Every structure is written in C-alpha cells, then in structure tokens.
Amino acid sequence: NSCTVKSSMDIKVSFKVSSFYGATRKEYLYQLKKKHHLTECKKHSLRYSTIYQRNSYFDERIVWKWFPRQRDAFNYCSLTKEKYLCLFTYEKVDSKRKFLVTSHQQFWNRYSKMKSSEKHFYEVIAESKPCRLYFDIEFDKTKNPNLGNGIEVLETFIQLVCSCLHSRFKITLGRKNVVDLDSSTENKFSRHLIFHLGDNTLFINNIECGQFVKSICLCLSDYLNTGVSNSYFSNDKFERVTEAMPSIESLHKIMVNNDEGKTFLCDLSVYSKNRNFRLYLSSKFSKKIPLTIASENVFCFKNKLTKSERRVYKLQNKTFDKDYCQFCDTLVCPDIDGNIRMLTSVGDALPVTSSINPVYLVTCKERRCDGFKVSPYPDLDQFVLQQASINSLNGSIRRWIHYEERHMMIYDLDNNRWCANIGREHKSNHVYYVADLRSKVVYQKCHDPNCANFKSSEIQIPIEVLPFTDNDVIEQFEISTDEYLNMMFSEDFLPDTNVLEKINSDQHVQYENDTNVLEKRNLDKQVQYENDNDISINSKEFDALFEEDLPIDLLCSES
C-alpha cells in the first residue's frame, strides 16, 4: 500500500498509494456513512446509546443508558453502585415506556434543550429511596361545580397537611415550603405538590409516605362522618388540627365527586412501589399540557449561592445554574449530601443518620421469582386466563410473581380491567389475580385505591392444575406424615401383583444370562493368558484382569 521513490540525491521518499490515487470506494463509503451518522446524532438528542466520560477529578462519570425494562435498569444501577445515578422513564406511543439511567445534572443538560413536544418524562420513585412528601391533586370540574377554580379547596388541603405534620412530627411548614406545579385544563383540575420538610428531612420511602397520607385521609373521613378520628391521631390532637381550618364545610370539600361516587382530593394510588411521577415541564404523550409552576406558587427557588457554596463551585470549576436548581426542587427524590433525618408513618422520626448511598438495591425479605408472559406453570396460567376471560374480555398475562415461601402466584393482566367490585372495567387502574396454592383457590384483586380492600369470590383450582412435588404434598394438602405414608403404600398406589412377579421373573432371567456371559468371558481371558507365554504381568495386574473386566492388552506390559 506504500510506494518508495528514489531521487538523484539518493533520498528515499515514501508515501501511501491512497494519497496519490485517492480513497478507495470502500473507504469513501465508510467516511460518508460516518458523516451521515454524526448528522443524525445532532438531529435526535434521544438515542439508544451509552456514554461514558469523565472530564476532571470533580466531574461525575457521564452515564446515559436506555433499558427496555425497569428491572434491567435497576440491576444496572445496583451493579455500578454510583451514588449519583437515578432512573427516569420516557413515555412512548400506546403508553409504552423505556427507562433511562443517568444523573440529575446530566439529565437536565439534555432535557432543558429538548422541544416541548419531546418532553414525556417521569421520575421513578424507587421503593428503597428516601423521598419528599408529595401529592397528586385532581378532580373533575364538571362534577364539582361547587369547588369553582379549585384554589380554595387546595389551600385548605395544604393547611390540613401542614397541621398534621406539626401534630405528628413537630415540623412547622407553610405555603412557602410547598412547590406547586399545575397542569390543569378547562375540565380537569390537576396539581402536583412537593413538600420541602427542611433540615434534610425525608420520608424513608414512598410507601411510608403513602401510609402517612392515607392516615390523614382516614382520620378526616372518620371525623367528617362520626366526629371521632381513628387511633392514628388521638381525638384531642385531631381536634386541634381541625381547629386551624377555616370551617368544617371547607373540610367537606376535600371529599370530591367522581364517576364512582365520593373520593379524596388527592390520588392515593401514587404511593405504590417504583412509582412513575411526571416531571416538571413534561406532559403525557396523549396530551400536550405540561407541568409548569403554578401562578399561586410562593415557594422561593434558589437563585444565588452563599459564600461557602461559591468557593466550592470555584474549586470544582462549576457554574451556577438556577434553572437546574429549580428542577431539583421539583423532584420527589432529591440528591442530599450530609446527614438525613428520615421519617416513618409509625412512631417518631428516626434519629439522624449518616449520609446514605441511594443506589437502587431492592431488598428481598423472602424468596421470589418473577417474569413476563408465561410462568413455569403453564397449566395454572391457562386456568387463570380462563377465569379472567369470563366477561368476554380476553386478557393476557403481562407479568407474574411467584412467592415460594407463601406458595402464592400473582398475575398482572393486560387487555382486561374488569373488576368484580364495580361490575365493569376500570378506566386507568389494572386488576390482578392471586393464586393461593396453599388454599388451592384463585381470586381477583384490584390496584385501584377505592378497591384496595376488595377480594372477589374464591374459585377452586383443580387438582391436576396445581403445581406441586412429592415433597410439598404433606404441606399442600395438610395431612400428617403417617397419612401420607399410608396413602403412598395403599393398594391404589401399589402396582398389580402379577406385574411385579413378571418383572421379577424377567430380572432373574436377565441375571442368569449376565452370569453365563461373565463366566464365558473370564474363561476366554484365562485361555488367552495361558497362550501368551511371552507376556508377563505382576500380581496386581493379574487380579485386575478378572475384577475390572478390562481388555487384556491394556493390562499387559512388555518384558
């Protein structure tokens, strides 16, 4: 590929042939493809790609990795063990989603440059990650004309939550500590509220956060119906909470009307495990109404640095971005350095702990396995689908979970939201079926918070469908060991006597035939040994000759 030219001065000059004749067709096409690839990258900021880069000692490693499934994204976060990594969800067509692993700073650098039509992102609130107190406020304006624009009932609700926080945890908050995000339309009132508890105070996870919210709603419901609250708040405490409210009528407005009757102003279903919560400036894929700062918001976002913070930024060669700080204040799960005071729904606040590593490590208290579509028990899958298809709705298994210690299978369904509690399909929430293998029954439950305590009538699972082994028979059917042994050795389980006699006779004939063959082989080996007078073997090899039944030529050695 190179050429050497010798001049009159005897100086050798070497150059590549391609530099003289030009690039070959293969090289030209490669360069053209590379140029086209770079052009496409500039057009589309979101791509299925992974980027790793570190510019300086203080910079975090740049990670931008997509996953088709949430479980794979969690596994990646747990393996990398990077403290700053978090998980986001991107909504696609038909409510399908893909999952992004990156940091808050790296996400904002790209998110802030996207078009509004491309922003359909959600924050994943991991079950093991501390979080702020958050609410999803919504109601239908057409079904609640008495609430007007909804501002008055919203202020009453915020005041009620602040009073309960002070009564339960001695935390004093006001409207200025609440980030208010708005995505309301003409027919629907929709707000997201993020409470900043102050002093690095967070709930230990969103499940405990949800328990606290549900306790407020239950106390309010009992108080409005009977005048007495439940045991979470003592009667005098909750009375002191309600004394701060404008009036009892204002508390009644927190119970709003929907298609199913009365419900709470806040959505109680947003406190589930690994919940997706819409991000600031994002909209749902089917709608074009983004979450923006509400006009009634009085939360003071950070717009300048303190002296100590300026020194840190200068040392790390960073610039202050107030828009990024505003974005971080709207997140449910923040990045907090230093000590964290964690709250639980029961008992007092936990003592101040050291800085935790918010890596997505899901702790398993019991053995379980899960998967998609088909489980290890296809017969049980078909039986559950038959029960789910009774109402002319052909559902399919989206996901299954098997709890080994509890002998229980959970089936999440697709294409079927029919709930036996309301006698129709739910509009947004799904249903699931529980197969209790210990009790040998199947029943339907629901993800809707209004049907949280509902359980359909039990359906007996046929014995031929149950997945069990011999080791599980005693436990599955709740019989004693003696009964199990008597059952196994009863006449129903033992084979026919004539069959046993025939088997024994065949085995005896086979044994006699094998003995005759062995004697004949040993006799042949002895004759072969006597004939081979020139071959000598030691005593051990001689014994092995007849005991191991090996070819004689492998045991002999030349003299």
Describe this structure in words.
- It comes from Hydra vulgaris.
- InterPro entries: PRIMPOL (IPR044917).
- GO terms for molecular function: chromatin binding; DNA-directed DNA polymerase activity.
- One of its GO terms (cellular component) is mitochondrial matrix.
- It is an enzyme of class 2 (transferase).
- With 559 residues, the protein is of the alpha+beta class.
- Among the domains are: 64-125, no CATH class; 133-273 and 280-330, no CATH class; 368-489, no CATH class.
- Helix content is 33%, strand content 19%.
- The chain has 16 helices and 23 strands.
- The protein has helices at 17-21, 25-43, 70-80, 104-111, 151-169, 206-226, 235-243, 248-252, 307-315, 322-329, 378-388, 473-477, 481-488, 497-531, 539-547, 552-555; strands spanning 2-6, 12-16, 65-67, 86-91, 97-102, 121-125, 133-140, 178-182, 188-195, 201-203, 255-258, 261-264, 275-278, 292-293, 341-343, 368-372, 396-403, 408-414, 418-419, 424-425, 431-436, 441-446, 459-460.
- Helix 5 packs across helix 7 (235-243).
- Residues 45-58, 347-365, 469-478, 488-497 and 529-559 have low confidence and may be disordered.
